[in-house]
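Run log, item B.
One chain of 100 residues. Sequence copied directly from the ordering sheet:
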Amino acid sequence: MANVNWIQRLLARLGLPVGASLAADIATVDTVVDGIKAQTDKIAAKMLFTMDFWSDLVEEVVVTGTQGTVVITGGNVVVADLPDTATIVRAIVMMKFRMV
């Protein structure tokens, strides 16, 4: 019987549920797990997921050594299947330069 008390004290120090019956301890764990699940279920509604939509490539734009504005044609990005509730918070343009 002394060993049982020692084990219960050890489990209590570790923060584990300790009680007279195993069923009560399991019920306590189930209650805690349900509370954690209730909080984590709320996270999905708050998360902002990112999605990438790539446009067709604009294959060639000639940039000379002089300063000026280059008009890029055909660079429209078409986004399909975007949910009605979605909001675009930022758009990023990526350009690759090559010197010949």
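Observations after the first pass:
- The first helix runs from residue 2 to 13.
- Residues 47 and 64 are 44 Å apart (CA to CA).
Flagged for discussion on Thursday.
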